[in-house]
Design goal:
Layout lengths: L2 E5 L8 H14 L4 E5 L5 H5 L11 H5 L5 H4 L1 E5 L2 E4 L8 H4 L9 H7 L7 E5 L6 H9 L2 E7 L8 H14 L5 E8 L6 H13 L13 H5 L7 H4 L4 H17 L1
Parallel strand pairs: 1-5, 1-6, 2-4, 2-5, 6-7
Antiparallel strand pairs: 3-4
Helix pairs in contact: 1-12, 6-7
The structure holds adenosine-5'-triphosphate.
Length: 254
């Protein structure tokens, strides 16, 4: 049975998409069957895995508004072991289209339920907001991975996110838990990164992954080639760190 993980933090630019793409691809490289779901209308997971978001005809948007079946939106084997559900910019309108729709929090869950047995992992990239799209992702997920960028104000908004997870757990999805926090864009040359890691460890009562994702230019370049880091530059520090993160995620699953 597939484990469903939402990658969420309403703070923008903290590495949600980079983590979703590369964790999904590294899990796939390790032989796990993975479905990556792009719930962010910006579509960076879609294009970062080599799917042209402007030519997608059936996306998560059509799924969310009930026009298509989940099997019609899965792009099979964009890489070995890795399927994706792409997004389109139209998804930004879904929030409005869902006004007044019954059980709108459960739309994604009802769809994913039909296919999750085919996967070891389903990784959902969330938008940078606590919107109905994020609520749908959390209602679907078994757990949430929270990327935290190693910069000032790293903890800003985190209590809101944790509160949202608790609300979803109480009201919509009793199995939901925070799987762990992962530090991203760590810069070993600065004291700031180290201070942020120590400060977060002192103040946060959540699991923290041992793997810390470094700031690595290859991670920033890879999406423009439509490739995850393990295919773009497998020897880079970015690739090594996401492979280690994948190992940790697999270990926690076992
Ligand atoms: N470890 C890293 N090293 C270098 N650059 C990184 C790293 N992680 C992310 N980036 C870059 O930082 C920017 C923001 O990352 P990303 O898009 O993954 O964040 P996000 O949280 O998904 O953003 P949004 O909130 O807009 O959805 C991107 O340009 C990405 O390439």
């Amino acid at each position: 049975m597939g484990r469903i993980i939402a990658v969420a933090n309403q703070k923008g630019g903290v590495g949600k998409t980079t983590t979703s793409i590369n964790l999904a691809a590294c899990l796939a490289e390790k032989g796990k069957k993975v479905l990556a779901v792009d719930m962010d209308p910006q579509g960076n997971l879609t294009s970062g895995l080599g799917v042209d978001k402007d030519s997608v005809e059936k996306s998560i948007y059509e799924l969310i508004i009930g026009e298509v079946d989940i099997k019609e939106v899965i792009n099979k084997e964009v890489l070995e072991n890795l399927d994706i559900i792409p997004t389109s910019i139209d998804l930004s309108a879904a929030e409005i289209e869902l006004i007044g729709v019954d059980d709108k929090e459960y739309i994604l869950r009802n769809a994913i339920d039909q296919v999750k047995d085919q996967y070891d992992f389903v990784i959902i990239d969330c938008p940078p907001s606590l919107s109905m799209l994020t609520i749908n992702a959390m209602t679907t997920a078994d757990s949430v991975i929270v990327p935290i960028q190693c910069e000032y104000y790293a903890l800003e908004g985190l209590s809101q996110l944790i509160h949202t997870v608790e609300l979803v757990k109480d009201r919509l999805n009793s199995k939901l838990e925070i799987e762990g926090v992962v530090f991203t864009m760590y810069d070993a040359r600065t004291n700031l990164s180290l201070q942020v890691v120590e400060n977060v460890k002192d103040n946060l009562q959540q699991n923290i992954y041992k793997t810390i994702i470094p700031r690595n230019i290859r991670l920033a370049e890879a999406p423009s080639y439509g490739l995850p880091i393990n295919k773009y530059d497998p020897k880079s520090t970015g690739a090594e760190s996401y492979m280690r993160l994948a190992d940790e995620v697999i270990e926690r699953e076992e």
